[in-house]
Amino acid sequence: MKYKKIWNEFYEGYREIWSEHDYEYHSYMIIKHILSELSVPKTGKLIQLGTSLGLSIELLCNKYGEDRVIGYDLFNPLKHPNIEVRDLEKNFLEDFKISFCDIDIGVLNDNTDLRKKYYSWAKKNLVVGGYILINKKIVGKLNKNFETIDLASFDNTNIWKNPHKNRIFTKTLVKRIS
Q1: What is the pTM of this model?
Q2: Segment 96-125 mean pLDDT
């Protein structure tokens, strides 16, 4: 296995990672309880950069159709058919239209540079009305084509059950408005 050391350190060495990336993981909760309330454009792919177990990918597939959803990660432990095993740092994605992008990549080493590169990529490829889920600290100043949506503005009791675990205060949605 190409990434055996990372696998051993992250998945084997820290077995609690399996319980951290469950149905209360921030990506899953935000997709289920916030994105599902929004009007996601009918064109463009819904992608997740950094899929972990693939629970969010399965949720996206069920809601938006398997043909529109793709996830990328170093590992695909549950062999989900919509997750492509790919080192996104060494093998950068080509351009294609996207309607939603969850950028949760680089968590293994907290590589914010990689997240910033994919944030720029996602903004360039996002269709009008599409969304990017990203860390607030990465967003920076936006031009008139984009707006941020504060996750704390949603009045959803499921999100407020455990706001620290679902990272509602550290994540934001960026929407392309024109």
Answers
A1: 0.86
A2: 88
